[in-house]
């Protein structure tokens, strides 16, 4: 049992699970826009998420020398290093325009983590900005990169999906912020800190309405997608309603981050 728990913790703490969530959203994009070949960009997103998230999570601790090289952390370091090599491998398989945009999002990740200006905090600690930066990066990586790499024309459907994907990530982050309310620095000015948990839940539930309705504005309506999206909305609504500060870390780091994976699997089943 202890070994199983160790494996689960390594799986979650090394960001493999969140990497799979990103991979699933890329595959969702490829399905929605009928992109047949896109293994390179999907794998790039998967390994890039592992590297990016581990850098964000462990860089500050490493620089402050508040982190010890336990066995678990050594394994995570090895996973991150291997992922970094694979990111480079898949990066050179992408189209030139995709590479340029990927570098832009890499720069945003660095800005999010490292203080570029003396005596200034990094973007992660800018009051009220964190949620928008994270949502923007997820939209760019899971929607922008596969579309650019495929070379298909950008239509109104693309912009609709950008809005829809942004709302989805925004609502998911709201749940994270509710769970982390007790531990977050008050200066971060997260949404629950500013308007309270109850209003944050109401905001999240209201945002799920346009998320679903945007599907009706596409150039062609997919009935299976409507069914799957309704299941997704109900799932996220339940996560939102039952979110509170006393939930375990697995509530968000495993179950909530499984939502994009379940969304993709449901679409495959239908």
The total beta strand count reads 0
The oligomeric state of the chains shown is: single chain
Terminal CA distance: 36 Å
Give the overall shape.
Answer: globular
* SSE pattern, N- to C-terminal: HHHHHHHHHHHH
**Largest β sheet strand count, sense and barrel closure:** none
Number of domains: 1
Helix content: over 70%
The number of helical elements comes to: 12
Average residue-wise pLDDT? 87
What is the C-alpha radius of gyration, as a whole number of Å? 19 Å
Low-confidence stretches: none
The structural class is mainly alpha
Strand fraction: under 5%
How would you characterize the overall build of this protein?
This protein is mostly helical and 270 residues long. The protein has one domain (2-269). Helices cover 73% and strands 0% of the residues. The protein contains twelve helices and no strands. Helix 2 (16-32) packs across helix 6 (130-150), helix 3 runs parallel beside helix 5 (96-113) and helix 9 (197-213) packs antiparallel against helix 10 (223-241). The protein is globular, with a radius of gyration of 19 Å. The mean pLDDT is 87.
Q: What key attributes describe this structure?
A:
270 residues, mainly alpha
Quick structural summary:
This protein has one domain (2-269). The protein contains 12 helices and no strands. It has helices at residues 2-13, 16-32, 39-63, 71-91, 96-113, 130-150, 156-179, 191-195, 197-213, 223-241, 250-255, 259-269.
